[in-house]
Amino acid sequence: MPTFLTPGRHGYSVRFSRTRPDALAVATSQYYGLAGGGTLFFLELAPDGNTLLELQKLEWSDGLFDVTWSGSREGVCACGAGDGAVVVWRCGHAAPLRVLRAHTSEVCSVDWLRAHLLSASWDTTVKLWDPETETCLNTYTGHSQLVYTATFSPHSPATFASVSGDGHLKLWASTEPARPAAAVKAHDAEVLSCDWSRAESHAIATAGSDGLVRGWDLRRLTAPMFTLKGCECAVRRVQFSPHAPSVVAAVSYDFTTRIVIGSEIEIESGLGQRIANGTRIESDSELNRQLDRDRNKERNWGRKRMWGRDYNQMCKRLRNRMRYG
User: Fold this and answer.
1) Domains along the chain with CATH numbers
2) What stretches of residues are WD repeats (predicted)?
3) pLDDT at 72 (0 to 100)
4) Radius of gyration (Cα) for the chain, nearest Å?
5) Kind plus residue range of the DSSP H or E element containing 113
6) Using CA atoms in the order 262, 266, 267, 271, what is the torsion angle rounded to 10 degrees?
7) Which of 200, 198, 226 is nearest to 213 (CA)?
8) Segments of the chain with pLDDT less than 50
9) Structure pTM?
């Protein structure tokens, strides 16, 4: 597997380009995101398939915690930063194209669909942006704790999901910021990640600091469709395969990537079914991992590791102590 080193920077997010299957963006931070600056790397897989080439690296004054590619503009990415900014860059340009400011705390999740951009923050809000005009269109305030992930539905561009330290999964119509369209207590712990199934418009998965991954049928949120067990620590990222509805991958603070493959995950008939373990892949990267799937090829990429359960809450406390004394 090709390896790219980021000396002095710790990886937070890696994403394949939506328009070029061999291009990646990697968001990193100094000192595990506790202090210092951040660097965005634009990478390209060499034609031999064995080498990752650095196209460009761009510096920011605070840590970079997530990255997302524009679906309509070639080579354009947005990053969530520790100073509350959403920074838009284009590969080949030294200066940011846009700097969007409205959050009052760290931006830990960004997602871009068509002309709109979502950002989720430790200030407990989600914001919807028009990045071309640098306008914040709406602010969504339904969570009571840190919002870790917000992501558009791939089936309905006016719908998105968010998950939070308050344990809830919430579904939103982007035109109605006052309250969510639906909500469920997804975990008895912080919920760190969620992902929509590309195959089934009513299916979504959540991952929590309780070490569980759960699947939900949006038509009946009374109980999870499935629960994946086996991770010994918090699950930082969950993702459905874009190629098969019966494949789910999760990355955990226990230094593993787990891939559940097969008929155990049945979107239509698996209500209440409990599933254990799956395929376990030990990781040799430095700290916890992030996972992204190339939408065109079956390649998996990991991020560097961070420590254990409730790491993000610890980071918030330490960052505030370093910032304010």
Assistant:
1) 1-103 (2.40.128), 142-325 (2.130.10.10)
2) 100-139, 140-172, 184-219
3) 86
4) 18
5) strand 107-113
6) -140
7) 226
8) 266-278, 280-289, 295-309, 324
9) 0.85
